[in-house]
């Protein structure tokens, strides 16, 4: 199985959209009564949280990739300086 990087933004968006589907499925199955406007806060909050999580994960991933590159550049610079 091919491995891929973890994407928390997509996970959160999927969970909230699934929750919205479950709420409306329960309403359609007459398990409970759901007002029509419930979807607006569920989807909005879910997408906002997903965007925040995705942005944070991207920033962390980018920072981790940049750190080893800086260390190798510093070590190469030390090798080129005579007397070190």
Instruction: Work out the radius of gyration.
Output: 23 Å
What structural class do the secondary elements suggest? mainly alpha
Q: Could you list the spans in which at least 5 consecutive residues all have pLDDT below 50?
A: none
User: Tally of extended strands?
Assistant: 0
* Span between termini: 47 Å
Q: Which sequence of SSEs, written as H and E, runs from N to C?
A: HH
What's the overall geometry?
rod-shaped
What characterizes the major β-sheet?
none
Q: How many DSSP helices?
A: 2
Name the helicity range.
Answer: over 70%
Q: What number is the mean pLDDT? A: 86
Beta-strand percent range: under 5%
Report on this structure.
This protein has 84 residues and is mostly helical. It contains two helices and no strands. α1 (8-28) packs antiparallel against α2. The mean pLDDT is 86.
